[in-house]
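Hi team,

Filling in the usual template for the complex we talked about on Friday. All components are listed, including any nucleic acid strands or ligand strings, so the model treats them as one assembly.

SUBMITTER: L.P.
PURPOSE: interface mapping
COMPONENTS: two
RESIDUES: 229
SEQUENCES:
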Amino acid sequence: AQSVTQLDSHVSVSEGTPVLLRCNYSSSYSPSLFWYVQHPNKGLQLLLKYTSAATLVKGINGFEAEFKKSETSFHLTKPSAHMSDAAEYFCVVSGPRGAQKLVFGQGTRLTINP
Amino acid sequence: KAGVTQTPRYLIKTRGQQVTLSCSPISGHRSVSWYQQTPGQGLQFLFEYFSETQRNKGNFPGRFSGRQFSNSRSEMNVSTLELGDSALYLCASSPGLTTSSYEQYFGPGTRLTVT
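RESULT (copied from the run log):
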């Protein structure tokens, strides 16, 4: 079975400073991992994905994440926060290849202070 | 390509009624998954349909059901509505092939309120 733990329910940073959203996962298989973002009253948008290729994954809007198997982590980072980054972020693990069931973390709400 | 569309966007129902939600996937995608999002439970997987067959199922009661049509459009039905069914219901589509693990593309959701 798979599970995801997002270590912070809320992160607050100042505009222009780095962002770090932490995620640990548990999986019986070689996992596929994703980060999704949800802006208020909107659906989920894929930021980036890891599917056993390069361990450092680059996504949209300057975000990137590093897969660390030894630490079972998949933390999301961005060098410089923008006001538009304020949203809810979800770390997600999927099942074995072909299984379309996604397991979501509880989410991290990112607040950007001017 | 057009994205995933869901109708209606907002719905208000009374306890005991039933409701049907609709989802049209991205053109060419054959897999449609449904998720329930609530403040207390977060995002939970309901079920997935591929080529008109339910392929995966989450841990929800039988009041929650779905189906998929030959054009890959999907509907989700909830019977005998309870207050706890108030949630944002999200639909996601993907190519659905078993040879690799594809990301899913989400629609804007249907906000269901049960009174």
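MY TAKE: The two ends of chain B are 37 Å apart (CA to CA). The mean pLDDT of chain B is 93.

Thanks, L.
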